[in-house]
Amino acid sequence: MAITKNVYALPFRKKDLIKVLSDPRAHFAHFRHAIDFILPEASKILAPRAGKVVDIKVDSRQGGAEPKYNDIKYVNYMTLEHSDGEYSQYIHLKHKGALVELGKEVKLGQPIALSGNTGFTTTPHLHFMVFKLNKTKIGWESLKVRFKEKLTVDRTQRPVPKALQKELDKMRKRLR
Q1: Which fold has domain 3-175?
Q2: Dist CA 104 CA 19 (whole Å)
């Protein structure tokens, strides 16, 4: 199992956390180590390590569980590059929710974005993952994150609407 070289802080204020999830029906293949932090919309997202902002998209106002939202044009996100070749990524951000600019260096604990509910999602949350680049077909692999804080991740599979399950099944087939 690929695991982070470094230890990461939580990417939010503890008081904002509602629940920590990682449903294997949505987090599989190259997303298998991703974690969903259920947070109120517009919660501050914090840099879990120092790094550089290498990618930002915060122009979408839309999201939902309908298949049409499973398109990059609907999701807002940010990516940080860390000094050791690891990258952290923050997905489903609020419209215009970036608090830093592309190319800027950020410090551990610095507010970088606001959580949201954009893209293919059923509730406001932060989809968080750490990855490294590699020479595979997709070009990267997710890493199991080591956190400074003790974290219990609920991996229970809950019932989902049929349309959502159908879209997840289609994604799984594409990624095989």
Answers
A1: Glucose Permease (Domain IIA) (2.70.70)
A2: 30
| Number of CB atoms found within 10 A of residue 108's CB | 12
**Cα distance between residue 130 and residue 82, in whole Å:** 10
pTM: predicted TM-score of the whole model, two decimal places: 0.88
CA 168 – CA 130 distance, rounded (Å): 21
pLDDT tens per residue, range 51-72: 999 999 999 999 998 889 989 9
51-57/35-38 β-pairing = unpaired
14 Rama sector, left if φ>0, alpha if ψ -120 to 50, beta otherwise: alpha
Q: Which two tokens stand for residue 29?
A: 């293949």
Identify the bridge partners of residue 20 per DSSP, sorted by sequence position: 37
- pLDDT (tens digit, 9 = 90+) per residue, 117-160? 999 998 999 999 999 999 988 889 999 999 999 998 887 776 66
Rounded CA gap, 32 and 159, in Å? 19
| Residue 174 to residue 159: CA distance in whole angstroms | 22
Comparing C-alpha atoms, which of 115, 100, 116, 125 is closest to residue 50? 100
List the chain domain ranges.
3-175
CA 26 to chain centre: 12
DSSP string, 39-57: --TTPEEE-SS-EEEEEEE
